[in-house]
Each structure stands twice: as C-alpha cells, then as structure tokens.
Amino acid sequence: MLHRKIYQLCCDGREVCIFLRDQQRWIERARIMDIEGDLVTIRYETDEEDEISSWEEMVRLESIGAVSQKLASVSRGHFEPLVSDDCPEAEQIRPRSSDSSES
Question: Tens digits of per-residue pLDDT, 49-78?
C-alpha cells in the first residue's frame, strides 16, 4: 500500500516530507522523482549558512517510515481574507442566525 501511495505522490509531483527510519531523519520539501522496483529517487534542497545545495538520493522503499504533505497554509498576519463577489449564492457561506422564529 505504501508503494502505491508513493507512486501516486510521484505522479502528482507535489512536495512531501519523508522520514527515513534507518537514518532517523526527515527530508523536508522533497519531490519523489521516480520509483523503480524498491528504489525511490527523491530530490530536495538544503540551505546551510550561505549555501543552497540540491540533492538527489535513491532510498529503499523499506527505509521510508513516513510520508507527509502540506495540504494548505495560511499567513498568521492580521488581515481579512479575500472573498469573491462572483461566488454563486448557493455556494456562499452565511452565518447562522441566532434567533429561531420558526413556530
């Protein structure tokens, strides 16, 4: 099942975080480039001091302990989210009214 999920992430081309259990480390913001047999090719960058390095590693499928991906992020700044006026009325979210006048 992990093999199928990693293959799907490879096809999607999305950034993932991968935990290598044999090395006890996380690789962040990686892309799964290829899967051949039980070898997974991943590509990522590291930023150390004033140098950015690009890496490509081949790891065994059995050494991958976990794969996670960021679904969304929101800035912590204080701002009002943008709302489209073109949104169909049926899809608009309206606050519930607190008074129930149904009798």
Answer: 889 999 999 999 999 999 998 887 777 777
What whole-number distance in Å separates Cα of residue 29 and Cα of residue 43? 9
Buried b (16+ CB within 10 A) or exposed e, 39-77: ebebebeeeeeeeeeeeeeebeeeebeebeeeeeeeeee
DSSP string, 38-86: TEEEEEEEEEETTEEEEEEEEEEGGGEEEEE--------S--PPP--TT
Question: pTM higher than 0.85 for the full model?
Answer: no
Contacts of 36-40 with C-beta under 8 Å, sequence gap 24+, read: 38/62, 40/6, 40/64
